[in-house]
Fold each of these.
Amino acid sequence: MQKPPFANPDFAFRRKNPRGLAAEVAYAGALSFLRRKYSKDLADIDLAVIGVPFDLATTNRSGTRLGPRAIRAASSMIACWSRIYPWDFDTFLRIAAVDWGDISFDFGQPGTAPESIRAAVAEILATNTATLALGGDHFITYPILQAYAEKHGKPLSLIHFDAHSDTWRDPDGRIDHGTMFFHAARKGIVAPERSVQIGLRTYNPETHGFNIFDAGAVRSMGTATVAERAREIVGDNPCYITFDIDCLDPAYAPGTGTPEPGGLTTTEARELLFGLRGVHVAGMDVVEVSPPYDHGEITALAGATIAFMLASLFAERFPRHPREDARAAKLSEAAADGGDPFTESGEDT
């Protein structure tokens, strides 16, 4: 008897293979990112998705500590798709990925959180596994970048999507989610001259050497041109991509702590990310999703979709997996026979 569609729940626990996707009921089951298996075992894993539920460096509304959970929940709605538009390959056949879970720290000792984040990411990178972090406020990118700079032994390029520059000048010993890239540039963690900031629409008189394409430039130049310029600036340098969800206009992402009108549409964001194909992506994150201010989960869904886009951008430089062709042929055969192609996805479990 043929197994019915959606008959294999809870792949977050039961998945045997770290590659592939398969159909599940979106409204039930464990909240892993895109139904990846929860695992701390990173042997032969290319990408670890990590949650960083930290929001103690915010300048306005808090709530992003709940962001990783919300993004994971929203990701279940797109977890059964092997590809995300407009990519022409199956992301999770190209790369082996797991949901590593959340980084923990003692909220009674908030000063220890940055080192906890840096150390956890460094431990993952030591296995030659990259990270896709789900925030959390934007400060979390700073200790993550510290771990990446240590791993690569040189300043990274940064592609930074945001409404804000996050480079406001700060004295030594002080840092928040609007100043961390000032410190990162000053301390040689990132190379501003080989980095790009996209979507900005707040005023900062100092660029600190970063190449800026604000929201107006995206609209006047077009997404394809901005993406091409970004690729030229970054070159072949290892690049970290960070996407603050408030880069999107509040109409598309109301659930964030510091919304700014006049932002990008989700379509523009997707086009920009797709246009970055060929960049040497070392790591990435999506931050500042704040569920208490969301409506209809649209911010969380945008965050999950952007995270999937980032994973696809990372996977693009990996070789094509033989199962991509085999799976495509099997789905085509099932469709030609009038069967349900979802029943053919058990091989991905």
Note: The beta strands are 47-52, 97-102, 130-135, 157-161, 196-198, 211-213, 239-244, 281-287.
Amino acid sequence: MQLHVLQDLRRKLGSVSEYELEEERVVAGDLVLRDLHGTVSLLRTDRGLLAAMDATAKLEESCSRCLASVLVSVDVRFQEEYVPVVDADTAGRIYLADDDEAFRIDSEFWLDLREGLRQYILMSEPLKPLCRDDCAGLCPLCGADLNARPCNCQPETDERWDALAGLKQEMDEGE
């Protein structure tokens, strides 16, 4: 997920380069992606390169109910500007304002797409991934996987509701 972009930075403004992305496994911070496929185009700007990514991948997640490992399909589309820290022609240092939030191209002209990828996936990943739609989850008392087998736990009752439960029982018997 790193591209050497020295030649791209030496091109004239408005030049576009296309790269095919095909990665079996990508680790982007705390995220692990499988089977990443797509393209990234680099547009030469006056400050650096505008990277436009269009890709699909499978994200390793945990089921929000039973914690089983699950692969979730994600689409990644983003555009971000990457600014070099060193001038490609003169090798002079480029100083950027501290509040400039553009991604950086390192001093050896490697553009690393992983952090941008990670940030955009965090915005688009499912909030509660499930291993299957009818996942029963875990027993809140013993932690047993209810998809594998039912547990023998009795639901806990709050004794503050006992008087109301007794009243309900009396009403049911009176009918």
Note: The radius of gyration is 26 Å.
